[in-house]
C-alpha cells in the first residue's frame, strides 16, 4: 500500500480488517517492523482519538511518531500555486511538505474541509498538495471528504460484534447538531461498508442531506428514520451538513436524536459513533450509558486499524 486516503487505496478491505484484528490479538508481533522509522503526524485541526491511537499504533510497531500541530505552531501555509505571497501566509506547501518528507518515512495529516467551496473540498485540494510534494507515503488522519482510519475501525467493530451467518443490517442515521460538520465520516463509512460488502446497508436522513453518490453507492436511502431503524443490527449515528446545499444546516429537528425509544424496533442494535459526540443532542445519555452502546470499544479499535495501515505501508516501502 503506497498511501491511505480512501478505501480505493486498499487492495482488499477484508484482508486489511483481518490484519487489524490479528494485531488486536497480538499487538507486539511486529515490534521490529518500524525500527528506526519515523511517522510525522501533522494536524491542521483538533483530535483526541486519531492522534493518540495512531501514536500507540506506531509505538507497537517500534516506530517513532512526531506530532506537529502545524495550525498553531507552524508558519501559516499557502496552499495555492502561483500566488504572490504578500499576505498572511509565510510558507508554501511546496516547501513545507517537501521538507517534512525529508524528516519522516511516512507523513500523516488531518485537514478538515472549509465547507465553503464544494469543489475545493471534493477535489481534496489540501491533502493532494501534501501528496504531491511530500515524496513519502501519506496517510489521512481525516481529510476534507473521507476518514478512512475511522471507517476501517468501524468495519472491524461491526465484524467482531457479529456472529450470525446472515449479513447484519447496518443503518447509518443522520442526527441533529449545533454546528455545520463535514461529510467526511459518513462518506467514508458508506464507502467502506460498500467496499466490505458484508452488510445490508441503509442510510437515513432528512431530505436534502443526500451524500455524494460516489460514496453512498447502492445503499438504500430511507427518509423515514423509524422505518429505516426497524430490525437494524447496528445503528451508526452521525451528523453532517448538507452536501447539496453545501455546508449548510437545513434541518434542526430534535426528533432525529437517537433515544432508547428509537431503538425499540431494532434487533437490540449496537449503537456506534466515531466520537466526539454531543450528548443529548446527537445521542441521548440513556443510550450512550446503556448496554447497546459500543462507542468506547469502537474507539479502542482505532489502534488496530492504524497499526494495520502503518504496517502495510512499512512492508511495501
Ligand atoms: N474526527 C471525528 C469527527 C470530527 C468532526 N466533528 C466535529 O468537528 C465535532 C465538533 C463539535 O461537536 O463541536 C466531524 O464531524 O467530522
Ligand atoms: N473519531 C475521531 O477521529 O476522533 P478525533 O477527532 O478525536 O481524532
Automatic annotation (TrEMBL):
Domain of life: Bacteria
Protein name per UniProt: N-succinylornithine carbamoyltransferase
Pfam family for this entry, one: OTCace_N
Keyword Amino-acid biosynthesis: yes
Residue ranges occupied by any Aspartate/ornithine carbamoyltransferase carbamoyl-P binding domain in the UniProt entry: 3-160
InterPro entries: ArgF'-like, Asp/Orn_carbamoyltranf_P-bd, Asp/Orn_carbamoylTrfase, Asp/Orn_carbamoylTrfase_sf, Asp_carbamoyltransf_Asp/Orn-bd
Keyword Cytoplasm: no
Keywords per UniProt: Amino-acid biosynthesis, Arginine biosynthesis, Transferase
Domain Aspartate/ornithine carbamoyltransferase Asp/Orn-binding: 199-311
This protein's encoding gene: argF'
Annotated N(2)-succinyl-L-ornithine binding sites: 142, 177, 238, 278
Catalysed reactions, semicolon-separated: N(2)-succinyl-L-ornithine + carbamoyl phosphate = N(2)-succinyl-L-citrulline + phosphate + H(+)
Function: Catalyzes the transfer of the carbamoyl group from carbamoyl phosphate to the delta-amino group of N(2)-succinyl-L-ornithine to produce N(2)-succinyl-L-citrulline. Is essential for arginine biosynthesis.
EC number(s) from the headed UniProt entry: 2.1.3.11
Protein's pathway: Amino-acid biosynthesis; L-arginine biosynthesis
Origin organism lineage: Bacteria, Pseudomonadati, Bacteroidota, Chitinophagia, Chitinophagales
Similarity annotation: Belongs to the aspartate/ornithine carbamoyltransferase superfamily. SOTCase family.
Subunit structure: Homotrimer.
Annotated binding of carbamoyl phosphate, by residue: 47-50, 75, 110, 147-150, 274-275, 302
Amino acid at each position: 500500500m503506497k498511501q491511505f486516503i480512501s478505501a480505493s487505496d486498499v487492495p482488499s478491505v477484508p484482508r486489511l480488517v483481518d490484519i487489524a484484528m490479528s494485531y488486536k490479538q497480538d499487538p507486539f508481533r511486529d515490534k521490529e517492523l518500524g525500527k528506526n522509522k519515523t511517522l510525522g503526524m501533522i494536524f491542521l485541526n483538533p483530535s483526541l482519538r486519531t492522534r493518540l491511537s495512531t501514536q500507540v499504533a506506531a509505538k507497537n510497531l517500534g516506530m517513532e511518531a512526531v506530532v506537529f500541530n502545524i495550525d498553531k505552531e507552524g508558519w501559516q501555509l499557502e496552499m495555492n500555486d502561483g500566488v504572490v505571497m504578500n499576505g498572511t501566509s509565510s510558507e508554501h506547501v511546496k516547501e513545507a511538505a517537501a521538507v517534512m518528507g525529508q524528516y519522516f518515512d511516512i507523513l500523516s495529516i488531518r485537514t478538515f474541509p472549509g465547507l465553503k467551496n464544494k469543489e475545493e473540498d471534493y477535489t481534496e485540494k489540501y491533502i493532494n498538495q501534501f501528496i504531491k510534494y511530500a515524496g513519502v507515503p501519506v496517510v489521512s488522519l481525516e481529510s476534507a471528504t473521507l476518514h478512512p482510519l475511522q471507517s476501517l475501525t468501524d468495519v472491524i467493530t461491526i465484524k467482531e460484534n457479529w456472529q450470525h451467518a446472515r449479513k447484519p443490517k447496518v443503518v447509518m442515521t443522520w442526527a441533529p447538531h449545533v454546528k455545520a460538520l463535514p461529510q467526511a465520516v459518513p462518506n467514508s463509512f458508506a464507502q467502506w461498508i460498500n467496499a466490505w460488502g458484508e452488510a445490508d446497508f441503509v442510510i437515513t436522513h432528512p431530505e436534502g442531506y443526500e451524500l455524494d453518490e460516489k460514496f453512498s453507492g447502492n445503499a438504500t436511502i430511507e427518509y423515514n428514520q423509524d422505518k429505516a431503524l426497524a430490525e437494524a443490527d447496528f445503528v451508526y449515528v452521525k451528523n453532517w451538513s448538507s452536501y447539496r446545499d453545501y455546508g449548510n444546516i437545513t434541518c434542526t429537528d430534535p426528533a432525529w436524536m437517537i433515544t432508547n425509544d428509537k431503538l425499540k424496533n431494532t434487533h437490540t442494535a449496537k449503537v456506534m459513533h466515531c466520537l466526539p459526540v454531543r450528548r443529548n443532542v446527537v445521542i441521548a445519555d440513556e443510550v450512550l450509558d446503556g448496554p447497546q452502546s459500543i462507542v468506547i470499544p469502537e474507539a479502542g479499535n482505532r489502534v488496530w486499524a492504524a497499526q494495520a495501515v502503518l504496517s502495510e505501508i512499512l512492508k511495501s516501502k
